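Give me structure tokens for this 237-residue protein.
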Amino acid sequence: MSETASSYNVPEQPGPVGEPGLRVGFSDELDQLRLQLEVMAVRVGEALNRMRTVLHTGDIEVAEAAIAADDDIDAMVVSLTERCYDLLRLQAPVASDLRFIVSVIRLLEELERIGDLSLRVVKQADMLPLDPGLFDTLSEMAAVAQGLFKTAIAAWSKQDLDLACTLATRNRVMDDHYSTLMQKILKLEGPGATQRAITAVLVGRALERIADHTVIVGERLRYMITADPAYLASEIR
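Here you go.
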């Protein structure tokens, strides 16, 4: 059976300074950490929902709400990262426990980045929505990005290796959409073409990067479950 975050129950191991009491509740601590990460993922999912609303409507009020909510995501990153460091220092975890905690630290970075990228789209609210030709492609890209994110978080929550394996393949669709977007941008002409092109590039690149970061979440889960370092290659960028 694969080692997963649900099997962290090691009360028989001594603490790092020979005090068994330091291990009491360690399994509970790891479960809480997993749940807190999932709560943060929900917040990031809400940010993506707001992003798509702004992309479709250019709603300034929704954009302002998204900008304000980003502070909560940042605060959670700081708090949970500090908690991970405390667990590493106090519990000196090994094997699957160590992979889990280190993976949480990495996932926190990826979730924060996804939130920041969604905000990059939101900050273009005064230029959205764009003309139909660009909008259709950007809308498809946003749907792909959000779908990949939901899959990545579901895979993490269920510790589902097979589901995580689908992310890299599905992300190729995003590459096709981005290529289509670039072709449309090159054909823009007339008044305001330059500004529309700049906005489309900023939004399109942000959506593409959101998808890339969700793939990293899936690859990190595959590493955490299997301990195969080959899955860490996607994090080199």
